[in-house]
Amino acid sequence: MRRIELEPRPDWERTIKQSGLIYSRSLRDDGTAVEYWNDGAAYVFTLPEVEELERQTEELHRMCREAARYLASGELGSLGLTPKAFELAQWSLEQDESDVYARFDLAYAGDDTPAKMLEYNADTPTGLIEASLTQWFWLQDRIKTGALPADTDQWNGLHEALVARWRTLLHRSLNEGEGGRLFVAHSDADIYGEDWDTVAYMRDLAAEAGWEHTGIEMKDIGWHHGARQFVGVPEAWGSSRSIAALPGDTPGTQYPVIRNLFKLYPWEDLVSGEDRVIGDQEFGALLIAGRGLFGRWYEPAWKMFLSNKLLLVALWRMYPGHPNLLPAYADGPNGMTDFVVKPVFGREGDGIRVHRADGSVASNGQEYRREGTGRERVWQQYHELPDFRGSRGSNHPVLGSWVVDDEAYGVGIRESDGPITDYYCRFAPNIIEG
Fold this sequence. Notes:
Elements lengths: L1 E4 L6 H7 L6 E3 L5 E3 L5 E5 L1 H26 L10 H13 L5 E7 L8 E6 L6 H17 L13 H18 L5 E6 L7 H16 L2 E6 L4 E3 L4 E3 L3 E2 L8 E3 L5 E4 L3 E5 L2 H4 L5 E3 L2 E2 H7 L6 E3 L4 H4 L3 H9 L9 E2 L9 E5 L9 E3 L5 E3 L13 E5 L14 E9 L2 E10 L9 E3 L1 E3 L2
Parallel strand pairs: 4-26, 7-8, 7-14, 14-17
Antiparallel strand pairs: 1-4, 2-3, 5-6, 5-23, 9-10, 11-13, 12-13, 15-16, 18-22, 19-20, 19-22, 20-21, 23-24, 24-25
Helix pairs in contact: 2-10, 3-8, 5-6
């Protein structure tokens, strides 16, 4: 893998928004603007390199599925979850509930050495639109203007893979009498619009696969006391889109019963005991008490095993010395002098501290908002991200290798100035040279 630089397209800001990437610009604490999309750089792979990285991704995924069973055995405790939440994840894994997608974060030097797994975002992966759509349209523009040869390809089959996955899940739902309506939920706590945009794209994918789809905010998911079911917001009586509906509170309305739900919302928050459906009715307690009665939730509850940083410890115990893994422990650095301390529920680099042998400690200054019940931490060996220096200085890339239906289907590359890939990283497209 190598990094190239190109002149940004004249109208790239408008073009990326047309692809759905509306959250490129953000502000640092000091008020300076930061662009997430990097239109003037790209990472270049060879086809054999992509095939090898796909093989490594799929091997890691198989190992993670095995590690989920190890974690479900309780060898590493309840993973910072409440006992009842842990039992829900165990039950979900035993049922082999269907999932949709996930994203590995990999460190890769581009010199044919094995990629190193940093973590697995298997519950609420984002960065989907830029990995699937924006970089694909970027490639078409570059070919059209002659900046890249016509036979240039891209490591990106995400759109087609996700449509195929949703089509499979639709047929399964119809065959099992659960209907063809999918609710797609996000939280309005996201102020940048990325979550909203991601679920909007997921609705497009589901629609292309044949689903009837309805957007809903997490806080608007209701609970019907009589039927003891989760329901959507009231709609006109007689709507035929749901296989089940309950009378609404006002004449001429009905509550659609939710039998299929995609939620871009962490399971550890759902089962924390803090979220309320209404009054004293707590979301997680209802899900736990009525497990198996509420249709299909994507991602399923067993993804709590894969989105938890203790997964790294389980993998190292099960596959010590594996070329794609870094040593990781649950009880301290165990002799490591360069290591990273991670909270078990951390996302986007929040709460991560990098300890170096010279005694220095680096962090992004952000603490993750939720601790594990026992303040669990993971100590993972520090791995220096490669530096693909460019005209504006350092660029430390992390490969987001996507998995759909157990297979690798594409990559999104985020590059940062420093060793932590945080909110202010940049997304650079990829190409496969002909």
